[in-house]
Amino acid sequence: MPELRRDPIIGRWVIISTERGKRPTDYRSEEEPEMGRFCPFCEGHEDKTPPEILAYGDPNREKNKSGWRVRVVPNKFPVLQIEGGINRHGDGMYDKMNGIGAHEVLIESPQHNLEIPNLEDNRVEDIFWAFRDRIIDLRRDVRFEYILIFKNKGAAAGASLTHPHSQLIATPMVPVRVRQEIQGGKQYFEYKERCIFCDMVAQELASNVRVVAENDQFVAFEPFAARFPFETWILPKNHDSHFEDLQKSEALSLSKILKKVLTKIKIVLDDPPYNYIIHNSPLKDAPLPHFHWHIEIMPKLSKIAGFEWGTGFYINPTPPEEAAQFLKEAD
Amino acid sequence: MPELRRDPIIGRWVIISTERGKRPTDYRSEEEPEMGRFCPFCEGHEDKTPPEILAYGDPNREKNKSGWRVRVVPNKFPVLQIEGGINRHGDGMYDKMNGIGAHEVLIESPQHNLEIPNLEDNRVEDIFWAFRDRIIDLRRDVRFEYILIFKNKGAAAGASLTHPHSQLIATPMVPVRVRQEIQGGKQYFEYKERCIFCDMVAQELASNVRVVAENDQFVAFEPFAARFPFETWILPKNHDSHFEDLQKSEALSLSKILKKVLTKIKIVLDDPPYNYIIHNSPLKDAPLPHFHWHIEIMPKLSKIAGFEWGTGFYINPTPPEEAAQFLKEAD
Which of these ranges, A43-47, A51-55, A118-122, B303-307, has the smallest mean pLDDT? Predict the structure, then answer.
């Protein structure tokens, strides 16, 4: 059983794989992702993944057979385990709990080489609806406090398979970065009685020096204090703390802007590895006036040195205004 | 002039290189560090670095000539600039200031291949005294709030030269991670009236399952909630919030334990790239009862995926207890 351990100083939870710990020699040869090898995510190979949890496709389709557009399966090598109690307890001054959680993979397309920039708009929409369906289902499990939705694309960004996919991890606690963001938003709200994210959207649209793309319901911009070169955020223009409250009409706008931004990143940076994460509210929170869900996209272009890791103090060699200009012009 | 920008949500400061921003194509070919090429840090090449700020060596030695044991020079490509005023100001809801600071390089040995595990104990001591001297000197500059001391070893850990060296960056604000640690320590102190780091030292020594090395004045252990495999911390056994208050007798103990730990890491992990950082108190703080300076060593073994970056939620595939066992036994 994996373990969740809490750093006593800053309250950060870490997943420790206590089952089969990696030995020193396991780190010497980093595995390369499969290239041209057999792909368990391709259409026709449905029996090579754990049985599916959800799929959109032909209504007459049999489960775990072809004929799907998106498909959600349990991760074959989950970092957290679905069965069991949380059993939060102390160890002297330390805190830990069982590594309980869900770890699922969303296969974005039956085709091996069809990434988001090449999908039809309504196929991108399927991805968001499927994640929303999974959130609605998983939040019934009272053990879970948070659901992380993220994508690792490319080996340098942590992907171990090349077939387009993203992931979901449900955790029994709220990750520290999300907690800090919500806390920061709350402090601003207490002082200003306004949402800090709504204010950012307003200022970015007004100044228009960091905006990358915009449509009726969403805006994409380079954040003012971007940690990484070409870091890009996508926010709904209207205040909304929970991704799963997405309106039907918003889903298409979101799909269009994500596709547009990823296409621009692909063109300008020559198809780079990247990660994105949906920053969402904790599952058990009522609608929050001080937090605004959003997507953070981080192309993996430079090495992160110890300085950055150890201090949370990043050096960004490309000003966000210049990055925005490059991205804005690309099409 | 580089810029320091503050993330309005969580208060994280980022350095933005506004001078000569890296363009998209600059990221496509990551430079490899020099191997066998001309080294500006080697003895005899003193005129190839900016003029030295400090050096220990032969008392009759001429400045910027050979005959030194450690040597501190300004970084030729500083991330912050030493001249100018801070000029902290707003930009709508955002905050920024001029990228004022010091960025220095400490050359740890005149020989190109002599890393800390191969240096005499008192030569390692020189490194710590030189950093202490630089702190004492730089803290006279009222513009500075914090000094970061860190080492990047190996290209994968961010080093651009192979000659043994470490670095110092003086900043006009306190990095967010340090602020959070001090804040966490303070909350614990308010509740327990004890230093959280002192309590950690006591529990680690008593349980003895994560201790890697120990001497009269220092202890090295794998932290309970280690983010990275083989992450190792070194703490003074006696409470001390400021590294620069190091006692004469402590310096030798510190040198011995650092050398021992780095030797163990070199043996067990086959000379891996790594980073270490000294977590110290802010320059203008009086001695703090709730913070304890320490060194955090992070071997660079696995790729950090977007999940980790975006959430501060790390997955560590080697339990710290197992890592401690491997390191303890190596000699």
Answer: B303-307
**Any CB–CB contact under 8 A between A7 and chain B?**
yes
Q: Is the pLDDT confidence value at A303 over 90?
A: no
Lowest-pLDDT choice from A81-95, B78-92, B107-121, B303-317: B303-317
pLDDT for the residue A301: 85
Residues in chain A within 8 Å Cβ distance of B221? none
Instruction: For residue range A95-108, list pLDDT tens digits in order.
Output: 999 999 999 999 99
User: ipTM, 2 decimals?
Assistant: 0.90
In this prediction, residue B20 carries a pLDDT of: 62
Question: In chain B, where does the domain assigned CATH 3.30.428.10 lie?
Answer: 3-19+34-173, 177-329
Looking at the complex, report in whole angstroms how far the Cα of residue A67 sits from the nearest Cα belonging to chain B. Answer: 30
CA gap A295, A261 in Å, rounded: 11
- Asked if A90 is an interface residue toward chain B (Cβ–Cβ < 8 A), one would say no
- The pLDDT assigned to B331 comes to 84
Question: Could you say which architecture CATH assigns to the domain B3-19+34-173?
Answer: 2-Layer Sandwich (3.30)
Domain B177-329 belongs in CATH node 3.30.428.10: yes
How far apart CA A86 and CA A100 sit, in angstroms, is 6
- Among residues B165, B242, B292, B294, the one annotated as catalytic is B165
Q: Does A143 touch chain B (CB under 8 A)?
A: no
Confidence at residue A313, expressed as pLDDT on a 0 to 100 scale: 77
Backbone angles phi, psi at B234, to 5 degrees: -120, 125
Statement: residue B128 has pLDDT above 90: yes
| Token output for B60 | 């009759």
B191 and A CB contact within 8 Å: no
Residues 42 to 71 of B: which have CB under 8 A from any A CB?
none
Residues 266-305 of A with CB under 8 A from B: 268-270, 272, 274-277, 279, 296, 298, 300-305
Q: What confidence score (pLDDT) does residue A33 get?
A: 54
- Quote the pTM value: 0.93
pLDDT band at A26 (very low <50, low <70, confident <90, very high): confident
B88, B94 Cβ separation under 8 angstroms: no
Is B165 an active-site residue?
yes
- Indicate whether B129 pLDDT > 90: yes
Contact residues, chain B, for A329 at CB < 8 Å: none
Q: CA-to-CA distance for B89 and B102, rounded, in angstroms? A: 21
Phi, psi of B97 (to 5 degrees): -150, 165
CA-wise closest residue to B305 among A170, A274, A208:
A274
Q: Where in chain A is the domain with CATH 3.30.428.10?
A: 3-18+32-173, 177-329
pLDDT of amino acid A172? 95
CATH no. of A3-18+32-173: 3.30.428.10
Structure tokens at A219: 């805006």
User: What's the rounded Cα separation, in Å, for the pair B220 and B253?
Assistant: 12
| Residue B32 scores a pLDDT above 70 | no
Closest CA to A73 of A156, A8, A139, A163: A163
**Residue of A45, A89, A163, A165 marked active site:** A165
Q: Do A177 and B310 touch (CB under 8 A)?
A: yes
CB contact under 8 A, B313 and A13: yes
Q: State the virtual CA torsion across B62, B64, B67, B71 in degrees, nearest 10.
A: 130
On the CB side of A257, how many CA atoms lie within 13 Å of its CA? Answer: 24
Q: Report the residue of B5, B12, B16, B94 to disrupt the A interface, i.e. the one with the largest count of A CBs within 10 Å.
A: B16
